[in-house]
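Exam revision sheet. Question 4 asks you to relate a sequence to its structure. Input first:
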Amino acid sequence: MTFDRLGLSPELLRAVADQGYVTPTPVQAAAIPLVLAGRDVLAGAQTGTGKTAAFVLPILQGLRERAVASSPMAPGPAGRGRTVSPVRVLVLVPTRELALQVEEAVRTYGAHHPARSVAIYGGVGYEPQYRALRRGVDIVVATPGRLIDHIEQRTLDLSRLEVLVLDEADRMLDMGFIRDIRRVVALVPTARQTLLFSATFSNDIRQLATGLLRDPAQVDVSPRNTPTELVRQVVIRVDREKKRHLLSHLVNGGRIDQALVFTRTKHGANRLAQQLEMDGIRAAAIHGNRSQSQRVRALNDFKAGRVALLVATEVAARGIDIDSLPHVVNYELPMVPEDYVHRIGRTGRAGSEGDAISLVCVDELRLLGEIEGLLGRRIDAETVAGFEPDPRTRPEPILLRTAGHQQRSGQQRQGAGPRRRSAPSTAARPAPGVAYRPVGSPTHRGPATPPNRPGPRPQPQPGAHGAVHVQHGAQRTARPGRPNSAPASRPGPFTPLPGERFARRPDARVERPR
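Answer key, structure tokens:
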């Protein structure tokens, strides 16, 4: 099958040909006719399968056809004292990188079929985005946090939205954006077309789709949670303190020339990049604490070959689109097995083969077992001469936070239930650079405290070393010698809305991107 059999206009076919594409990918061949027909679509496809073009191309054509058939629309409500035009298409994405990637695809495929578009995301100035919205746009590609900011400032009008797209929906749920999604959905017309694209068809995704989509057509072009067959996977056993030296050895020895390297934490990404630079290897780190300009510069240097290793966290790497990426290295295994599939999906794309190398120490053997259980097979394992693991080494708890909070691997995953953030110790305080907001803080979207119980509120009673602070029936004694000290805060786990099963993962960001 070729693109000219999918019902696309000559202008779009010309733009596709300009990019050198002749044959659509499976998800494109299945989804494009459905979107052109106006159907709601629930599509599951792994990263690198062309799912961005699967919704961008038919949306561009639909905009042109509806614009010709409809009358001009009146301007929307005033924002900041000025008029803003209504948006026709909204694409929600989890990260800034993916917002830029999708908006670039809109401009690329719309080269001969133009549509006004803008990417809205945090980490950059607010005013340029507002000016673009004021001039009028057809398509907005946005991260949830910054989108909510524009909605609250009344600089964005969704009252006449025609198409709503949720891209990388599984990642948005993992990052805790379910409330933002529902808030946006409540503001858009019910008579709309909704497209939901996800790397996996988890139970959470199906539950979300049930409430958003109307009689959706389902497109599933790959087995559930199965990595692409073009990726060669290998596990290299090594002691935890030798991981960095082994990675440098693999690079200097020529086995790895360019790779996207995954760590669990932002602090770990920074430290590893600095250590690799000390080893004489060109490396850069990309994570949520970096400014947008720093992230763009690091990504551009990596794409241009000026950087050999791009060290990233799971969230920051989501949406990174790198053609012909040869290697992905799991410097640390993810705490959630499904994230392993997302990580290695950055290579082996668009028909090119790739390698996924995981450096596994004794602490991560349980995580490796969960990943292999998800894949339904064992991953080939090997050792490198001079870096053989010491069989006498005993496993230690995996440190998830740099604030002294430790959590053993896999503890968050209780069967098939939701993944929740563990309650940090009251004695622990975030280390410098660690982002954490307790429950009840202004940016936390969960309930601040349990509902008040009936009856009079208990009053503090004097104790031997100070006051006994009574909160909702639970007594806590102030520390000895500090009779006038305030009670320590006790943040609890993230609490989903009634009837929802979504909760933040332990490695998810607490603050939404703005």
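Marking note for examiners. The mean pLDDT is 77.
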